[in-house]
Write a structure and sequence with these properties.
alpha+beta; 249 residues; outer membrane lipoprotein receptor (LolB), chain A; 7-stranded antiparallel sheet; 20% helix
Amino acid sequence: MKSLMPLMILLLCGLSACDTRTEAQKIVDKAIEAHGGKAYEDSKIEFDFRDMHYTIYKTPSTFEYIREFSHESGQVKDVLNNAGFTRTVNGVELDTLNAEWIGKYTRSVNSVAYFAFLPYGLNDPAAIKTDLGITEIKGEEYHLIKVTFQQDGGGEDFEDEFLYWFGKDDYLMDYMAYYYLTDGGGVRMRSVTEVNEVGGIRFQNYLNLKPEVEKTPVDQMQQLYLDGKLEVLSEINTENIKVEKLSKK
């Protein structure tokens, strides 16, 4: 009988596909599929955000984020990719940037790209996903997922914490909240205001909300939102969206 056990386990694995993913991982995978799935990895995406033009390309192993805008010094182009960060002004690369400014520009470009690509970025190898169960907002049920990051590979902001609300049945991300430490720290919540589907990818605009007390724990943001105690800080809108398929298929 003992000799049959490994064979039985293999047969059971074959029948069930041996899905060893956590529940949180399964939810995130379904959310990524609902928002665009493989289209994220096969597309170059362009959009305007706050008077700046962004071009974004990202796969599991490579990425390139470009930000272009006009400045009193000339036409600025920031490029962040696997090789690092560079800034050019009128086509001439700046070689005088110190580590502090490189870090500042890198965080700024990376932040816009990260939020624009949600929920795709949640499968980053450093992301730690936790299923907090089902919750309800305005009569709708949501999977509530918490995301933190390992220090190794989690970047300078590895201590930030994120919450994501994915529809129980459609797995669409209607809300998110996050706690951050940079620039003095704080906490924000975003609620979807508009959806644009371009090239098979779902792009979302948001209201950016904040609590009265900046050091509010992120897990209190849902109740504050339901109680009407969050203030509208800004609107997060991506405009003039273009999606270019990169494969020849």
